[in-house]
């Protein structure tokens, strides 16, 4: 298949390059959850696979579609465990900034702001009223910077302005992702220590949110919530090609794909019909997982923190 | 193409049976809007095309995607004119019940309840305080009966219970539709005097909302807001078949289609990413059009009615 | 004090008539909750106190303001226990209709519709798919009929239309109440087997939702969420009168009250600034309590029912 | 009356000090709107009246309660005219930052974020795609920094971070205010070139958003949306005192006031029952007025800008 197909998920990029050197993959299991940990180790591999050097953990929980609450809890705990492994060197008195990226007025894009609102913040107490606390508590704060089209300000300018004042030791960024497979929507989440980097085609390095650009570790958590309608079409063509032997005629295939997509589908970005529920559930799961990882508390206590 | 493909739009059903007898089509134009008026005249045609006997008017406004407010106004006026033509025999003192079908918690399904809320209601004044009115005013009321999964009551039971008390002379029902073409979402609306009838495959005649089942004229207004992901796939295969001559091998084509759909897409129902804005705009346009048709007022006055 | 002050709470009406014959009061305690059970036993008492004959249970949980989740659980369980006591004669196979009264677009009035949406409904399964159930399950359904100003249809007409089709054996009606004391907002709920009856001043007996008008038991659950600004003013004047001995001059007092209220306050109905959170919490507590009472399940299972 | 009563409105503060030197007041009229322009000219007057030196314009439109759309338009135009007078020295190519203060999850506190979202932003085009514009267009951007309790970051830290990157020539800040008179809620708005300054009692000068602290002109626009329940009580007592001659006994009056307030009302902040509609209307009116003042366009064109 052409490698110009874009995906936000390292796992999907990996599937397109299964034999690539410089990429190490490890599988793991938890009740109801398949864990994939992919390490992109070399610049060559990074370039080929279209992802930055770093670790990409994917949690896949297909049964989430049925909304069993015990799987919600297990997924929050799995997220917490993966986060803890990534931030094991973080000092007790470190300040953590949770950044919720996206547009809160567009439901599938509102995951970041929703999580930012549910994260338990303490910085205003640790900073100004430390004596009100029983002991050392992690200093956590949050921001939802909005999007360029609504604010007229580049998201990263806003984040940079805030970080210059807050001076966090770690940034956790939450974002909605685009998946190549509709089935992954609402059942998958990706955690990476590579931060968020703009696609190579965009050529706008200022837009990145990662250790290089911000000087502190950046962990990005993303959930695939949209799929380009054109990928559904491309997948169909690809499968037909495999089945009919048509793939030998690649040029014509590409022409067909372009024709179908432009005529019938356009640049449509689609999302499942029940996206309202999915975003509500997923923001709950992510916030619980982050709160669990940052504070020394049980799942039940964490649930109470934000009512 | 196989005629088992489901669509709520008579125009799309017609496209699949362009030569069918007993179906008459008329085209018309307004600034920015293409109007198609399809009459299904015989039982044979109705059966073949999968639609009840009646008139189906489609208003298509592709530029609506750019959200020009003058097109909003033109579309409301076009809707009003088509409605007025359909209800020209309605008496001055008739009571009209506007029923907003759908689930208000699922954005692409919330068009009906949203319109019901924006329709200007007068029945409580015409009925109980007629002297408060300067002259005869159309008696209008509305209901949003909810959906079976949320209430445990069949929608039509609720509507029937209300109509037995309100005794309307006309019912206008609003619903979200499924389209076969993603491009139609948010740019098309259908008005029909055939009411809403369940698909022939469902075999549940109680579920219909039409003159036969309710004893009064029922005008249904629908907007395509979702598309089955499988139709995107089917469209792709269909186009490939045309281009490659593969359509001669129909059995294999169907097998392929089923394989692609079940593996990659499942029963996913998708909706555009910006569905929140689309539903907000469309409910505004529909409510304005209905208010214009039912009350003797200008567009500006109508806009003021519901602030 | 003048007895023309309106309150929806029997407990407050009782406070204004502490010595009245024909009214029996019983107090009880649960962790964090004070329970008052008032029985209005005679027509004379009913008339004097402005409430129908029946039992009125008030649950008062002042600490709820701090939102401790264990008190949420305790309050849901207390509500469930009081409900179970009231519906102890209800047959296993009885059908229960939960009616959420109020306007969902006005936050302090949206409690009823919110609870109706959170109640677990089963009637569509017990009625149409009984074999899908492991054993006998209570048949529960819900409705949110809207309000006259939005629908043009009297609420009770809609409820009557639905009950004629659903034929429930019990109706549970949820509504927002007006309190005479601002402090009661968000910390109190009232359960009564007297249903909902219009104030004597309204003179519209059709508007009642009770056993007399609907032929089946009606349990009403209400939460005070608004307070008339004039009651704050009246309370102030009343206290001043007590303190200054001014109450001997009642006529002048009333004039003053009227002057203050009309000049400074008008007919303003006020609600706490954080009403969004209060309604969200209270609808959760009520729905959990109702689900607990109607289904044979634990609190944790009930919480999972509606995610 | 004691001068410790807090109000955000200069007009109300002025009413408490009608004879104060160093304060100049001018009245004006527009259809349906009373305009008051108060200039606080000296430090002494500023201290006495509890407001910074500057101009405070109040627009009062009592009929707004009935929601006549032509008054919406008139009020937006009046706001625009007052704004234009204040920013008459602003250069054509100046950058304007609109800051929406408040908590978007608490309805009466969500005016600022709502306006920020409705303001038409152009900075991303003027900055990065100037050639896409037909001619010089005002560079406008917006931010909704959130509140300390939700983000853990002081609002002004966020605003400062953003301004250091955006380098605006003018800041327009939008905020909900507290009024001393419930009747003013939803019918009044205040515009001031004094920016936003914390109450003298707070003693936290960093929290101010004004020319001194940010180095650029700051225009603040506020709408009274909440009232302290205690002010209703205090007003009542004050009126009683006037009527009964009790005001000679001031100590006892204060004791009574404190007693009534703490016993019956607490620290309750109240808002009208229909606050959802009020905030929606007011954010529309403010955004239209700001867009009118900043862009060279008609009211109808402005209405189209944000659909």
Describe what you observe in this structure.
4 copies of one chain form a homotetramer. Chain A has 307 residues and is α/β, with parallel strands linked by helices. Chain A has a single domain (2-306), classed as Rossmann fold (3-Layer(aba) Sandwich). In chain A, 41% of the residues lie in helices and 21% in strands. Chain A has 12 helices and 9 strands. Chain A has helices at residues 10-16, 43-49, 69-86, 111-118, 123-128, 148-151, 155-166, 211-214, 229-244, 250-265, 275-294, 299-305; strands spanning 23-30, 33-40, 54-60, 95-100, 139-143, 170-179, 188-192, 218-228, 269-272. In chain A, strands 1, 2, 3, 4, 5, 6, 7, 8 and 9 form a 9-stranded mixed β-sheet that branches. Chain A is globular. The termini of chain A are far apart. Mean pLDDT of chain A is 86; it is low at 199-205. The A-B interface holds A 105-109, 181-183, 226-227, 229, 232-233, 235-237, 239-240, 243-244, 246, 256, 259-260, 263-266, 268-277 and B 105-109, 181-183, 226-227, 229, 232-233, 235-237, 239-240, 243-244, 246, 256, 259-260, 263-266, 268-277.
């Amino acid at each position: 298949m052409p490698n110009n197909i874009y995906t936000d998920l390292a796992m999907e990029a990996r599937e397109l390059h299964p034999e690539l050197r410089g990429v190490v993959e490890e599988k793991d299991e938890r009740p109801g959850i398949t864990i994939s940990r992919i390490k992109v180790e070399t610049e060559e591999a990074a370039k080929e696979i279209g992802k930055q050097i770093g670790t990409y953990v994917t949690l896949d929980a297909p049964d989430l579609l049925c909304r069993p609450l015990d799987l919600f809890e297990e997924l929050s705990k799995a997220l917490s465990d993966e986060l803890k492994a990534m931030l094991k060197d973080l000092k007790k008195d470190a300040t953590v900034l949770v950044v919720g990226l996206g547009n809160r007025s567009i439901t599938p894009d509102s995951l970041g702001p929703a999580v930012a609102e549910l994260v338990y913040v303490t910085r205003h107490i640790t900073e100004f009223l430390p004596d009100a606390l029983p002991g050392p508590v992690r200093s956590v704060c949050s921001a939802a910077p909005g999007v360029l089209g609504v604010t007229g300000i580049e998201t990263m300018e806003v984040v940079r302005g805030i970080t210059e004042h807050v001076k966090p030791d770690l940034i956790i960024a939450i974002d909605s992702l685009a998946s190549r497979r509709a089935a992954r929507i609402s059942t998958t989440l990706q955690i990476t220590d590579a931060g968020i980097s703009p696609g190579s085609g965009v050529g706008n390095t200022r837009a990145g949110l990662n250790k290089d650009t911000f000087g502190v570790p950046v962990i990005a958590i993303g959930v695939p919530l949209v799929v380009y309608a054109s990928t559904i079409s491309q997948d169909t063509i690809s499968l037909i090609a495999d089945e009919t032997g048509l793939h030998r005629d690649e040029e014509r295939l590409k022409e067909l794909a372009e024709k179908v997509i432009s005529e019938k589908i356009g640049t449509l970005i689609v999302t499942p019909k029940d996206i309202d529920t999915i975003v509500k559930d997923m923001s709950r799961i992510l916030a619980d997982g982050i709160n669990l990882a940052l504070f020394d508390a049980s799942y039940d206590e964490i649930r109470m923190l934000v009512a």
